[in-house]
Design brief:
This protein is mainly β. It has no helices and 9 strands. The strands form 2 sheets. It has a 5-stranded antiparallel beta sheet, with no helix packed on it.
Length: 133
Amino acid sequence: MILHIRAVEAAEVPKMDIIGKSDPYLKFKISTSSQVWKTKVKNNTDIPVWNEEFHLPITSSMNDKLHIELFDKDDISKDDIISTQDFDAKSFPIGKVIDKWYNFTPAKGVKHGGKVRLVFHLDRHGQTAFIAK
């Protein structure tokens, strides 16, 4: 199985630095893989638009957990984690395309986590991404 993900955009991304807005990007991890997928950094914005696609392998047991983190890129210090969201691979209906806004859970010390628009499509290998059955 393949979990196709389109990271579309975000809104209400909180300001993490004293000067300017956040420099947000998303990081994707699957519990059954050591690989990490990332969007490009969008500089100085609280409404980033990525429109990037990722294709993550899902095991046949479907016990995979998807962990998504929203970060603020920092040049001087470590990147700040803004918020996170977790999904079970089993929660995605096979062959259906889900286009939805998700309220992310704020990281410790962050008031609100922002909203992220994601498109998910779980399907078998060889099927066209983002085309519902």
